[in-house]
Amino acid sequence: MKTVAKKILRILAWTFGILVVVVLAVGGYVKIFLPSVGPAPDLKVEATPARIERGRYLATNVMGCVGCHTLNDPSKKYARQTGAGGERWELPMGVFYSANITPTGVGDYTDGELYRALTCGVTKDGRALFPIMPYDLIGQCDPEDVKSLIAYMRTLAPAGEKWPEPDLKFPFNLVVNTIPARAQPKPKPSPEQEIAYGEYLVNAGVCTHCHTPRETDLPHDSVFLAGGNDFDLHNGKIVRSANITPHPTSGIGKWTKEYFISRFKACDSLSYEQIKAMNTVMPWSIFSGMTDQDLGAIYAYLRTLPPVNKPIQKYPEVNAIAGGN
Length: 325
Hints:
41% helix; two-stranded antiparallel sheet; mainly alpha; three-stranded antiparallel sheet; 3 domains; globular; 325 residues; 15 helices
C-alpha cells in the first residue's frame, strides 16, 4: 500500500510540476511575444485642409475622441484642454487614465505608430492598449478616415502631461496582450448609399460598445444594439443603455426620422453641466454636431435591424444590482 501511495504522490507531483511549467510558459509567451500585430507602417500623412477638417469632424462629432480625451471637470487642472486626457477610471480590472493625444502625449509618435495604435491597439513601445479604447472598431474604418484623424491630432495644441500607464490586476495584465489584432479596414460607402453609410457611421461612432449587451448567453447577433449595459453615474445612480433596435415598444420603432434627428439637435446648445444633469452617459453634445444627412443615414440603418423585444429599465436600483435588499 505504501508503494502504491508513493507512486500516486509521485504522479501527482509530476502532474502539478508539468502544469506549473505550462502555465509559466504560456504566461511568459503572452507577456513577451504578444501583442503581435506587425510593425507600424511606414507612413507619412499629408495634412491637407480637407483631411484636417474631416479628422476634426470625426474626432469631435462622430467617434467621440475629444469627449474621452478631454477632461470636463472644472475643478481639475487640465479641464477643457482639448486632447489633454487625464480622465481616471477605476474598474474591476484595474485603473486607467485617458491618454494625452496632444503633442505632449504623442508628439514622439510617427504617423505610422499613431496609425497602428488607433487601428490595432499597440503603442509606440509595443504595449497593448486596453480595449476601453475602441481600436477594434477604428480598425474597421476606411484608412483615409484614420489618416484624417491623425492629421487633425497633429493640429492640437500641446496641453496637460503624460499620464500613468494602466495598472491592471492579474490576470487582466496578461489577457490584455491577447486582444490587439491586425486591422480589418473597410471602404467608406458613399453617403448616397444611405443604409451602408449609416452602418459605417454606427461602427465609427462606437455605438456597439455601449448599446450591445456585454454580459449575455444569447448570440451576439440576436441582441445587437438591444441595450442594457450598466453605467455608473457616480451620484448613487446607475443608467442603462437604450435599446435602439426598431422594436415598436422596447426600442425606437415608433420614432420618425425627423424625431430621431431632433433628439440629437436639441442638445446642440447645451453645456456640459446641462448634459450631466440629464443623468446620462450618452455623449449627446458630441453627436449633436453631426450633419442631418449623417444622422439620417444612421436612422436608416437602424431601421433595417431585427427588432429585439428587450425592455430596458433606464435607472435600475443600485442595491439590486449589487445583490443587496
